[in-house]
Amino acid sequence: xxxxxxxxxxxEYEQRKTEYLYSYKGNYLLVPNTPVxxxxxxxxxxxxxxxxxxxxxxxxxxxxxEEKPDSYVELPRAAYGG
Length: 82
Ligand SMILES: [Zn+2]
Known about the structure:
By secondary structure, this protein is α+β, with helices and mostly antiparallel strands. It is built from 1 helix and 4 strands; from the N terminus they run E-E-E-H-E.
C-alpha cells in the first residue's frame, strides 16, 4: 500500500514499534510494541486504522472486565494529573 505523507509528500515509510497511549475519559491504556509507520522524509508517525481499532476494542473489553490487560498496562489517572 503506497500513500503520500500529508506533510512532506514522501512515499517512503519505515516500520517501527512504539508505545501507544490510548486515553478515554480520564482512563489510560498504554500499549507497548504498537506497529507504526514512520515517514522517512519528516519523521511523522502514522498509525494503522486497524491497529487503533483493536486497541480501542481491547480498552473497552478491559474496562468491562471481559479481558485481562496481560501485556497491556493500565495507568492510574493520577500519573497524568487527572
Ligand atoms: Zn513526511
